[in-house]
């Protein structure tokens, strides 16, 4: 009678339960795996045979047995080496070398030839799938156990090798459940750059504060060396800390792509991703075969910094338009339909021209008009219209570089940002559910804008002037209201005042 052991398969960022059925019967020796396995799974028969033999049991190669492994559902493509452990246990069960309770457990793990277990990707997703499907226990490599233990409802057992796994299943060895305290990872603060270290640039710092408070997209323009990059990197130090639910969501993404540190199973700080301008469209938005998350998903709940913004490939930049608007990216392929989250804050930095000194009062620009035009043409109108805040970062004089700046330290600004975010959490409480962990002002749709962004007649007259003159599109109009709402939250004001809207417009209107 065939044996059946439960495992799981990754589909995007989520996991789906897989039944590993093993049938072993006497006949000409063979070992076949069916159920859309990839090359890594096909090769597992050699790893499994060697690991079983090294653990002191009869392997498929040592006896005249015809072995058939079926991975169900059969129409789901299976990838990776994580099925080594369940296939080994299923074979030993089918050949009656061991007997254990498999109904309430799932198994994942890659085997070395000597029977030791190697780390896998996506342990957090597997633990979540086990919880959602009613399993009580997950058995996986010891190095991944802390990550899976973040899901409290599941008993997590970390094992080091196949022999130890079998001894535990047979009751010959006690293995304690892995337990960790997630709060120990969330309480740590370690920011490489403090906003107070940056001298001058008060205008840009104010823009960063507003961007952090409402998760608004920001473009900084200025000559080389003015401080655009260091300003962008300091944004992480004024962002509010991740909640546990957000940290779990981000950690799940990093676990699937294999970027989660072994010693730190929970991401405690908001991501800051800074891809090089040679990055391809797939690298930015995700894709490939099989589809994998891109930089916009790795920046989920954090910051995506694109330095040298016009130098990116135009197709890559244009692909950002939909995720900026919707907070997720849909990957459509002939055999795949996946959605990856992408609620990030875009911070971009650009020079005004190829040489960087167009409009500089001190240095002469050496670019031809056609060069400047071609350089700026790389940034399309629809893309720029999706950016909330535009700010110029000028060169600083010596006195500004050496002046103290205590009031703009990251700690002071972060406290103001956290208060503004708390106001937003209370405002959007009724809209928060298991799929939307928290909304910010930048994520408001039209109905929410109409409800929460009421303005007085004087402010309406100001907006009418800019819209009717063509300086403000319909999308720009709504984005000004959202930025104004954030500025009002920073002032702890219930309503958007004229000065709040005026400041929002100041950041919106650009001089081309």
Polypeptide structure, described:
The chain has 512 residues and is α/β, with parallel strands linked by helices. It folds into 2 domains: 167 residues, Ribosomal Protein S5, domain 2 (2-Layer Sandwich); 210 residues, Rossmann fold, CATH 3.40.50. The chain has 22 helices and 18 strands. Strands 11-14-17-10-18 form a 5-stranded parallel β-sheet. It has a 4-stranded mixed β-sheet with strand order 1-2-4-3. A hairpin with a 5-residue loop joins strand 6 and strand 7. Helix 2 packs across helix 3, helix 8 packs across helix 21 and helix 21 packs across helix 22. The protein is elongated. The protein starts with a strand and ends with a helix.
Q: Could you say which overall geometry the principal axes of the C-alpha atoms support?
A: elongated
Cross-sheet strand order for the largest sheet: 11-14-17-10-18
CATH third-level topology of the largest domain: Rossmann fold
Oligomer: single chain
List the helices and strands and how they pair.
Layout: E1 3-11, E2 14-26, E3 30-34, H1 39-42, H2 44-54, E4 65-72, H3 84-94, E5 105-107, E6 110-111, E7 117-118, H4 123-132, E8 137-141, H5 145-148, E9 155-159, H6 162-169, H7 183-186, H8 202-214, E10 218-221, H9 228-234, H10 244-256, E11 272-273, H11 281-285, E12 286-287, E13 292-293, H12 295-298, E14 303-306, H13 314-318, H14 321-326, E15 328-332, E16 337-341, E17 345-350, H15 369-377, H16 381-384, E18 389-392, H17 398-402, H18 410-427, H19 446-452, H20 457-468, H21 474-490, H22 498-508
Parallel strand pairs: 3-4, 5-8, 8-9, 10-17, 10-18, 11-14, 14-17
Antiparallel strand pairs: 1-2, 2-4, 6-7, 12-13, 15-16
Helix pairs in contact: 2-3, 8-18, 8-21, 21-22
């Amino acid at each position: 009678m065939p044996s059946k052991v439960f495992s799981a398969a990754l589909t995007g960022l989520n996991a789906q339960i897989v039944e590993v059925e093993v049938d072993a019967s006497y006949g000409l020796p063979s070992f076949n795996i069916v159920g859309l396995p990839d090359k890594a799974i096909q090769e597992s028969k050699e790893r499994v045979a060697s690991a079983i033999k090294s653990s002191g049991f009869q392997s498929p190669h040592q006896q005249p047995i015809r072995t058939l492994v079926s991975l169900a559902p059969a129409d789901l493509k299976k990838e990776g080496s994580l099925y080594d452990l369940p296939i080994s246990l299923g074979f030993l069960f089918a050949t009656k070398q061991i007997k254990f309770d498999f109904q309430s457990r799932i198994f994942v793990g890659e085997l070395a030839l000597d029977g030791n277990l190697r780390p896998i990707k996506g342990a957090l997703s597997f633990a979540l799938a086990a919880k959602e499907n009613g399993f009580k226990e997950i058995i996986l490599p010891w190095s991944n156990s802390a990550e899976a233990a973040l899901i409290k409802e599941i008993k997590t057992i970390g094992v080091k090798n196949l022999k130890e796994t079998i001894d535990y299943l047979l009751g010959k060895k006690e293995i304690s459940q892995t337990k960790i305290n997630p709060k120990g990872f969330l309480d740590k603060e370690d920011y490489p750059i403090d906003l107070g270290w940056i001298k001058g640039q008060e205008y840009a710092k104010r823009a960063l504060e507003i961007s952090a408070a409402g998760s608004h997209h920001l473009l900084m323009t200025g000559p080389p060396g003015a401080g655009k990059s260091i300003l962008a990197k300091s944004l992480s130090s004024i962002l509010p800390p991740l909640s546990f639910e957000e940290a779990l969501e981000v950690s799940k993404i990093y676990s699937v792509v294999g970027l989660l540190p072994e010693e730190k199973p929970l991401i405690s700080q908001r991501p800051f991703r800074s891809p090089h301008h040679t990055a391809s469209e797939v690298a930015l938005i995700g894709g490939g075969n099989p589809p994998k998350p891109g930089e916009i998903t790795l920046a989920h709940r954090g910051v995506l910094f694109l330095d040298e913004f016009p130098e990116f490939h135009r197709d890559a930049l244009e692909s950002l338009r939909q995720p900026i608007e919707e907070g997720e990216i849909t990957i459509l392929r002939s055999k795949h339909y996946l959605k990856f989250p992408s609620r990030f804050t875009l911070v971009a930095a650009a020079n005004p021209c190829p040489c960087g000194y167009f409009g500089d009062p001190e240095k002469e620009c050496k670019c031809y008009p056609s060069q400047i035009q071609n350089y700026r043409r790389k940034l399309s109108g629809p893309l720029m219209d999706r950016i909330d805040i535009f700010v110029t970062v000028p060169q600083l004089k010596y006195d500004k570089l050496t002046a103290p700046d205590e009031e703009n330290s990251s700690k002071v600004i972060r406290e103001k940002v956290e208060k503004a975010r708390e106001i937003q959490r209370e405002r959007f409480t009724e809209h928060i559910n298991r799929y939307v962990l928290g909304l910010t002002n930048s994520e408001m749709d039209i109905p929410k804008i109409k409800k929460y962004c009421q303005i007085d007649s004087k402010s309406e007259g100001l907006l009418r002037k800019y819209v009717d003159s063509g300086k403000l599109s319909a999308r720009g109009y709504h984005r000004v209201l959202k930025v104004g709402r954030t500025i009002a939250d920073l002032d702890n004001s219930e309503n958007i005042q004229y000065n709040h809207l005026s400041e929002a417009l100041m950041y919106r209107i650009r001089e081309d």
